[in-house]
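Thread: "does anyone have the structure for this chain?"

Original post by V.I.:
We have the sequence but no experimental structure in hand. Need at least a predicted one for the grant figures.
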Amino acid sequence: MNPDTTILIAEDDDGHAALIEKNLRRAGMEKPCHRLRDGQETLEYFLGSGNMQQGKTWGRYLLLLDINLPRVNGIEVLRAMKEHEVLKRVPVLMLSTTDDPQEVETCHSIGCNFYLTKPTEPETFAEAINRLGSFLDIVTVPAIRLSSLSTISLN
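Reply from O.Q.:
Generated one for you, tokens below.
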């Protein structure tokens, strides 16, 4: 992965968020991670009101997005991002405790890049994130032009 990529973890469950970050680190991920606690905070982060832009012109981001987020759910965050001219380039990995085929299809039809069902057993979940970290370490993430971001609207 590009050395300047930031991993964003949009997860409201403190235990899951800690487990994700810890196991990404165990897998050798040295990229900065930033936790977002709900869908609204995630959208605000990308709009610049959440300190993302701070003088930067370009950035690389990969979003691990839980579906069941408060305020704005993950599917609506995904929809808003994939409808946005710049943010549609941000790779999004959906996280969910369900493997409902309809939900998986919905996320892929909107434009998620990957869908990961969170295992219910902590050890299995940790192993899945560890494998994800190994995978993320070899992918290339596109840069987005931060200065061209504009408002995202939720219909």
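V.I.: this helps a lot. The first helix runs from residue 14 to 26.
O.Q.: and The domain at 5-145 is CATH 3.40.50.2300 (Rossmann fold).
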